[in-house]
Structures
1.
Amino acid sequence: MKKTKFQKPTGMHDIIFGDQKYFQSIISTVEGVSDYYGFSKIDTPILEDEDLFLKGVGEATDISEKEMYTLKTKGGDRLALRPEGTASVVRSYIESGMANRPQPVKLYYIGPFFRHERPQAGRYRQFYQFGLEVLGDSNPVIDAQIINIVYSILTDLKLKNISIEVNSIGDKECRNAYKKTLVKYLKSKSSLLCSDCKRRTKENPLRFFDCKDPKCQAVKAEAPKIIDNLCEDCHSHFKQTLEYLDGLELPYQINPCLVRGLDYYTKTVFEFFVTTKEGKSLALGGGGRYDYLVKLLGGKETPAVGAAFGIERIMQAMKDMNLIDGPKSKDKVFLAQIGILAKSKSLVLIESLRRAKIPVVESLGKDALKIQMTKASRIGSKFIIIIGHKEATENSAIIKNMETGRQETVALDKVVSKIKKG
Ligand code: AMP
């Protein structure tokens, strides 16, 4: 294709044509399900103080180390394009005094996020996520409910072959003790680790479990797991969460190596996958509990749990399964017109059809009937409405049933009821 003068930035994309159907159906499903479960929508700025993410997401994470888009404003503030949603939601929870409202506070968001990643299939530099957050409740039933709500969203979208992985990464007490055990183990295997994991051993040892390098896999399999080192409180929280998931009959499995890429998680963590037609596993999203984040960002200690899902990934899975069946084109009525007066009457008639939820296709800008009829037959509409010069002056229209070949002239204000009758 010829290079145009301007192209979209590397790793970014337009959502156009058929993709919008998928995009919109995800948005409306997220809105409908979140609303049903009592979540209120929150929209936060795309830009935030850079430190919010450095602190919130953690300095020794891929996001903070290499993926953040940052800028210095003319006033000298250092801002970042948001790489994820939770830190912004927590900032708003603290700043707008949501802690003084009845707890828990349940919020959801949908919007664009930015990470300066190496562009590759399914990985963009601007991508959309939706997320749900429950702040102010430590009960494991909420962990299970969040997992169930996202499962409901995905199954309402008719996605199949979904699997859920869960783990617990403990709290301050047991994780710190466990980290020491892990570091000791990793140091003893240092010669077998990739250079990234050697660094992680010092900076953020749990991230070792995210390593995909084949070199580290054997060390991973033998490594002590956090799930076997939980304190009593974390153990019973996890056990209870799993029991609720069992009650919901959700397709989950425990993955003792699941730690998630962000620093703020405590106790429950989870990830959702879908198996594509080619048998590949596609990560759709994940989440977990983050009981220390509100305090870390300057609020009171507040238990919380949430989830974030990638909308492009869900679109990809839906396309892979051919899941959208919008109105079939044959259900759409075609409206043909001849002349200025007929065009004017058509504009009014389309409004009546829209209010009656009858999908209509037209070619208002065209004058020749032949061109319009060719388009109508390409669409395969069952009904064609024709407003010619005569009909326009008489306030009527011809309705042609293309299946039976019958046609009749009806008053313009009877067109909708006639089409509805079929
Ligand atoms: P994370 O917050 O990193 O766990 O991301 C949650 C979900 O967002 C992932 O499972 C993906 O579905 C999606 N996601 C994250 N990063 C990207 C990206 N660069 N491009 C597209 N989707 C992404």
Note: The longest helix spans residues 18-36.
2.
Amino acid sequence: MRPSLVLAFASQVVAAGIQLPLVLPSASSPAVSSVGKPIVTSDALQADIDAKNLLERANHLYELAKLSNPDYSHPTRVIGSKGHVATIDYIYSTIASLGDYYTITNQTFNAVVGNVFEFRLELGGGGNVPKSASAMSLTPPTKNKGPVFGPLVLVDNDGCDQTDYASNVVGSIAFIRRGTCTFGQKSALAGKAGAVAAVIYNNGQGSLSGTLGEPSPDHVATFGLSREDSEPYIEELRAGKTVAAKAYIDSIVENIKTVNIVAQTNGGDAENCVMLGAHSDSVAEGPGINDDGSGSLTLLEVATQLTKYSVNNCVRFGWWAGEEEGLLGSDYYVAMLSTEENGKIRLFMDYDMLASPNYANQVYDATNEANPTGSQELRDLYIDFYQSNDQNYTLIPFDGRSDYDAFIKHGIPGGGIAAGAEGVKTKEEAEMFGGKAGEWFDPCYHQLCDTVDNLNLAAWELNSKLVAHSVATFARSFDGFPERCTVESESHGVASYWHGPKLVM
Ligand code: DTR
Ligand code: ZN
Ligand code: ZN
């Protein structure tokens, strides 16, 4: 199949949501198999990385995000949008144009997308609108997408057991403390108990925005609220007073199909693969050129440059869809692996947000104690790279906020780097990396302004060289890197507050 036909085919597939046979034929020309090529080295692959090529790709990606304008009134690459379909086509056709160096796999899966168009929460007789109120992601709308009224009813304990919901919850707006179980579980229990809406209030500092996760027919329209905003009403309710409330959410939760793309070298030992991934989608609010255009394009560029060389071990690139909806694509990919296929992945490296404008060199603090053995060796490879390039680095929690989550939960060593999201840069970090203390690492995180202008090209180039280094190192050899253990022996079932970008509990 010629690349243009492959491309057109891929577009139709994505648009129609058709389930494909997992392996598509790769395009036939030009032929760039690894026979007769020099074995890859870190120095050579790093030298092939140039900010100019990355920038050109970023400009193209922004054009693709603009294809969503007619439907979203702004550029976005959220799953289900034309901008995301075009992103998938771009990744697919770029790899297909590299000929028989890679085998490309398309993996279609069902996903849910939500959009909250409008919401309003009023508490107390005077119709007070608490400032911190937010609608949870993937919340259903209130009945008939209109306002509902009811007394606010304080739920017992943490509202994680049906018995916490007394009979007076029927027809009420359930008022539930955060903690112990997920927001989705609380919403479903409130729905089952007959509440017309639910408000989950924080048990710690700040506002509470999260996601209900996997939709359930029992979910009711659900808000998050800060502890400060909830306290006066908790006191009134404890004193036996009635608090009137009004809730309104206009939202949709839709089922769609979307696609992961996986490209694996035809050369190298297929029983021992180094795998790396980035997410192909953005949030609905913006074009996601740093999040995660930067990681996706770095993978494309490294995959392109790698074709100049041969490899000893197989290299597998993954572009995940639906990361922003809760790691949907990477969860699906790992869940579909047989035990035998799982065992072929020696490690997984996550590259999400590599070019944040107010960047820090962040390395996930993935220890072998809490994660599959080998995660720490990978962490140390990143640290060594920054040190040998006279760069500072910080260690950040490895807590489930990106696509590595499913891999480490299924026994595959993992790790990664990032340049920073909505965290605030400290004074010490400003001394280490430059930039502005007191501001987010990426002030355009999940916003419309995450455009090409939001990229720090120097940080992106260095981090892309680090990606090249990680690929070349393991493509050459796994000497000294721990053997894979079985899935069972390496599963660390620690509960996490995060599953992707959103809080789940
Ligand atoms: N999952 C990302 C944001 C992200 C990834 N790693 C970290 C670490 C710390 C904060 C945020 C993140 C996203 O796609 O939004
Ligand atoms: Zn994000
Ligand atoms: Zn991301």
Note: The pocket of D-tryptophan (ligand 1) is lined by residues 291-292, 323-324, 352-353, 396, 401-402, 418, 421, 423, 500-501 (CB under 6 Å).
3.
Amino acid sequence: MRLAVVGSGYVGLVASACFAETGNDVICVERDAERVARLRANDLPLFEPGLEPLVSLNQAAGRLHFATELSEAVAHADVIFIAVGTPTASDGSADISQVVEVAEAVGRLARKPAVLVLKSTSPVGTTARVAAAVRAVASVPVEVAANPEFLKEGAAVDDFMHPDRVVIGTESAAVRGIMTDLYAPYTLRGGERILFMDPASAEVTKYAANAMLATRVSFMNQIAALCEAVGADVSMVRTGIGSDRRIGRAFLYPGPGYGGSCFPKDLRALLRTGADLGVDMDLIQAVEQVNLRQRDLVFGKVLESAGRLEGSTIAVWGLAFKAETDDVRDSPAIALIRKLLDAGARVQAHDPKAMPAARQLFGDHVCLAQDPYAAAEGADALAVMTEWLVYRTPDFDRIAAAMRRAAIVDGRNLYDPHRVTQAGIRYCGIGRRPREGTPPGGRERHATQH
Ligand code: NAD
């Protein structure tokens, strides 16, 4: 099929490469000319496992092209996907202006019938609104459909190639046929995995999915707080409830709170939609509040571990909002660092992939270390904020020797508290029994280690 994808971010670039990989002829349109030049040279502007080979192989095979001009892509394509940003507007709603702008431009440029598919996460009613806007300017029929994207950053290529489901919001039988053909290669493995529904239901499905996942995270963070108060271990509780098939194991990990470019933004937009329509969204509101509180809680743990922040040095392992991505948008680690800097601490951070993005945010206000141990050097506390594999089994003796005051705040519960304290490091996790966090000889030993 001849396709165009507008936007070369995490969604647009992955969709372009994966559509090309199954034999489609794809033009990916990006307004940022510098980004296009880099992409043409297979120099990816973002990190996503497995993406770089797909981009270079499909460019070499002539199935994937990058362009700055929408007109070229509209002339080429039978199906045009919109994958531009829908950031938070000042009132909390999703700002769909980029989506509408692209859709109207497609409508004006179209010279043959086309299907316009909204992949950007857009609030309920957007597909209908965009369809009306396109109808008003187009001289040929342009069908507009919703196709929200459910990929996870860090596993985006795999999610796109093997989706749990593909949701298409359309009332058109013709669009249904085209989408069935297009997605067939990705939905071969078992079951009826292309779900057709009306556009409004497809739009709500995307927000409801993210709200559900965020709810599980906040739920576990609240249970973790209770575990700390009563002396229980949230890891045990998580296993205990996750083995119930009605509950399942996914998304039950307590931590520094959810972040990234989707959950916080999409929950805010959902709250706004509810408020606009007079629907009480108090559960979603609570999920958001718990999440914000969790960030304060992790900050409090770092303060307690370091003793004081003014004039102290804090090491931070992990800057990305989750492992296997370089995305720092709304990352809990970034929020923590801002608070630490405000409190007068010096921050030494490390991340395997996200340091260039962090450098853009902090300049030289944060010292970015080339390896994790260098970040820990002379620190008064180490906060582990992202669950990168490289942080999973560190040399605790080396950490203890490097730090001025050996204390770890394990924001992802990666470590065995006993193992950490054995190395003479004070341990503080999320929702874990405090007695497991006290090293032999007590806390004072660490303060005077060097
Ligand atoms: P992004 O910010 O990484 O990328 C958007 C890209 O679109 C940018 O490169 C921007 O320059 C480009 N763009 C904007 N206007 C353009 C125009 N008129 N013409 C050409 N290019 C234009 O965004 P993203 O993370 O890929 O997300 C895109 C959408 O998908 C959002 O609505 C988001 O909520 C949704 N989504 C994101 C994810 C995710 O994990 N990132 C997952 C599912 C859904």
Note: Residues 440-450 have pLDDT under 50 and may be disordered.
